[in-house]
Amino acid sequence: MAGETVTQTKWEGKACVELAIPTAQEVWPLMEDFCSLHKWLPYVDTCYQVDGIPGQPGMVRYCASTITSSSNGNKETMTTWAKEKLLMIDPIKRCLSYEVIDNNIGMKFYVAKLIVSPNGDGKNGCKIEWSFVCDPIEGLRYEDFLLNTIETGLQSMAKKMEDVILSTR
């Protein structure tokens, strides 16, 4: 109805990026290293294992970023962080899923899945897909979260992975 505000109970979204040259077989080993996120996402400063067995469901990583902002001439530094638990990893299908289990950024519920798949011919290029379901995040609009975190993050991740792969060929 006109003028009514609709409250969305869950946010769901997906971003995809295609790489023309690196294959899924080349990209997947970079993606499956669950504690290498700081190498690929520009807004993650550190990422390391805090619990579990590397590469196995149940493993928990700690990811953090330091944000510096200015207001009224004063610089403020804040560290945002999240602990994320690997739920599923499948090297055959080249996909993994994880959930945020603790954080200081307002996420109450967040589950994501990353998939690396070959392009049509399977010889050249691949597609990386990042999908998620989460509760709305206080202080953020869905569109801003999707664009600034998921889409921009995935584009940066794909570019960095492509650069690394092409530099070692």
From TrEMBL:
SUPFAM superfamilies: Bet v1-like
Source organism: Castanea mollissima
InterPro entries in UniProt: LFS, Polyketide_cyclase/dehydratase, START-like_dom_sf
Domain of life of the organism encoding this protein: Eukaryota
Any Pfam family the entry gives: Polyketide_cyc2
Gene Ontology molecular function, alphabetical: protein phosphatase inhibitor activity
Protein name, entry field: Lachrymatory factor synthase
CDD domains: PYR_PYL_RCAR_like
